[in-house]
# Entry
Amino acid sequence: MDCISCDKCRFNGKVQVRGLATILKVLFLPDTPKKYEIMKQFSNQELVSTIQLLSKLSEALNIIEKNRVEELTAENLVKFNKQFSNFMIAFIGTIMGMFIFGFQTEKGIEWEKERDRP
# Structure
């Protein structure tokens, strides 16, 4: 960790690595009655490092979840835009067809017949 130029980043990196080492130490302790006695001997630094690591991991998981929700929202927006554009194309095509080919209803036909009568 000494290769990092920023002191704050170097410190946080060392704390997180120490927390990870502590978690691995607990995981690989043999299941014996002395396990809890060994865990009581952890230093305050190891406990704080573990809590710091768990905090950073939970922040990372929250960010991932937030990005996933935003991605799904963006996908839904794209799907809605496609559906809306397809609807608008069909609607405009229908209106243009009505104007080009003439929209004839029964009332419209009757009105034209009345208009054309002498």
In short: Helices lie at 7-27, 35-40, 44-101, 106-116. The chain has a mean pLDDT of 79. DSSP finds four helices and no strands in the chain. Residues 7-88 form one domain.
